[in-house]
Amino acid sequence: MSFNLSKYALNTLCESISVYYHEKAGVCCYALGPGDVTTPGSENHPGEIWKQTLTDDPGICGGFCVWLTSERRDWLSGRYVIASWDVEKLEANKDDIIIEDNLKFRMVV
């Protein structure tokens, strides 16, 4: 439960930073998930499911960060992205992401 709450808090903080500081100071803030990688926390979980599920190379996150910061990607500021996503598909969906305000946490009633 604490893991989920901390992730939600981080995403909300990132969105708030983007809302309050992007236009005023040009700050871009991205909530970045590293992909399905093994972490010290996941290594301690019992069962084989984690070994079968967490198969992404940790280096993917570094490559994604290079792409993310190689030019200004204001359209992703304040949004949640995952390092293992295909960046060409992400860019192809840019307009929809902006128009529909996607990649943000919302409660729909």
Structure, described:
- This protein has helices at residues 2-25, 40-43, 49-53, 59-69, 87-92, 94-99, and strands spanning 31-33, 80-82.
- The chain is mainly alpha-helical and 109 residues long.
- It has a two-stranded parallel ribbon.
- The longest helix has 24 residues, at 2-25.
- The radius of gyration is 15 Å and the shape is globular.
Main structural class: mainly alpha
- Unreliable spans: none
The geometry reads as globular
- Oligomerization: single chain
* Distance separating the two termini: 22 Å
Please count the beta strands (DSSP E, at least 2 residues each).
2
* Rg measurement, Å: 15 Å
Side by side, the strands of the main sheet go 1-2
Provide the domain count: 1
Q: From N to C, what is the helix and strand string?
A: HEHHHEHH
- Average predicted local confidence, pLDDT: 90
Largest sheet: 2 strands, parallel
Strand content: 5-15%
Number of helices: 6
Approximate helicity band: 40-55%
InterPro entries: NAD(P)-bd_dom_sf (IPR036291)
